[in-house]
TrEMBL record:
Keywords: FAD, Flavoprotein, Isomerase. This is UDP-galactopyranose mutase. InterPro entries: UDP-GALP_mutase, UDP-GalPyranose_mutase_C. The gene is glf. It comes from Hymenobacter terrestris. Residues 364-391 are annotated as: Disordered. Pfam families: GLF, NAD_binding_8.
Amino acid sequence: MFDYLIVGAGFAGSVLAERLATRSNKKVLVVDKRNHIAGNAYDHYNEDGILVHKYGPHIFHTNSKDVFEYLSDFTDWRPYEHRVLASVDGQLVPMPINLDTINKLYGLKLNSFEVEEFFESVAEKVPVVKTSEDVVVSKVGRELYEKFFRNYTRKQWGMDPSELDKSVTSRVPTRTNRDDRYFTDTYQAMPLHGYTRMFERLLDHPNIKVMLNTDYHDIIDFIPFKEMIFTGPVDEFFDFKYGKLPYRSLEFKHETLNTENYLAAPVVNYPNDNLYTRITEFKALTGQQHPKTAIVYEYPKAEGDPYYPVPRLENAELYNKYKKLADQTPNVHFVGRLATYKYYNMDQVVAQALTLYKKLTEKSEDTARKPAISGSTELVDKLVSRDPAKP
Ligand SMILES: Cc1cc2nc3c(=O)[nH]c(=O)nc-3n(C[C@H](O)[C@H](O)[C@H](O)COP(=O)(O)OP(=O)(O)OC[C@H]3O[C@@H](n4cnc5c(N)ncnc54)[C@H](O)[C@@H]3O)c2cc1C
């Protein structure tokens, strides 16, 4: 008999498996329907021997000392600060928009004060900022909105920014200095030997069994367990009782090129010209030396693996109906990006899993007084997400 059946071997499932096995001596079965561990953070060496991220570039960044120190028990790190260029009007300019972006784009020589005045002069007055369009035009005006945000967002989300919640573009800062780092978190690094190696170490414990290529539906009636931790899509768990929660998906087109370097930055965004949103060159993230280089194009699409919950009010309301069901389901704990229908970064999911672990142990110490827990977010929400990844 397993103490826990954990559905999903991504960050949420693997962190909980590790804690429960090593700290609480619980017997854990982790199942994943994919043929690998690490969830969307999975990386592997391609046929040319270049380390690539199967599901698009994953950059680790966090402001949480606890999360960084926790993961540091399972990996060494390569210091890495992410940088992105956007292809606009035939030029490659820093993204998020900063002083250099404006000067290069318009052939100007503004200083920080002048560029602040420039933004003020082009910003539109928006009485109540509600949508993603409002956020941007009220900060940098319509022209920059059109050049950097409008079409990128339409490609990424299949919707106009005026139809999307303000949270999508609120993530993207505008800078009046020359800081061209994509993130400004305290801790920014890549796992030295890759994410999958880190997950192998997380799951390497005699109390943990891992079954891959296994949908939990196929084993749930045969394998005895006491409690379940579910990190898959919450609507699927409840057989889509209230309808499907909308997700945006991506198609990844991986290529290996017979050249040592290809891009002028680790990632180049294409806000306008192409069907893909961005190209990533993996060696720039991993620091690997290799005579060839591997890149990936991202093509957003409506159908496919669920990647991004679509941030609209009606979807949040639909999720709340599922959350009520989840809260009433005894002995099943919902955690992670799909089970709580939230756009979480990796560090937030780790924080969410550590919080749930704490509650589970408090609960097992005093089961009589405490109800079952699902999808706790309190610590996670303290982590300010500064991910400008998806304008
Ligand atoms: C393109 C892209 C880029 C990203 N870039 C970054 C980044 O740069 N930095 C960052 O911090 N975060 C990034 N993220 C977010 C990051 O991927 C997530 O925060 C993290 O992977 C979430 O972990 P999770 O365990 O909640 O979910 P997942 O990693 O999705 O794991 C859930 C697992 O559950 C399994 N599963 C689902 N249903 C079943 C079932 N019925 N039976 C068995 N198994 C099942 C799935 O196969 C999956 O492996 C990115 C995400 C995407 C899509």
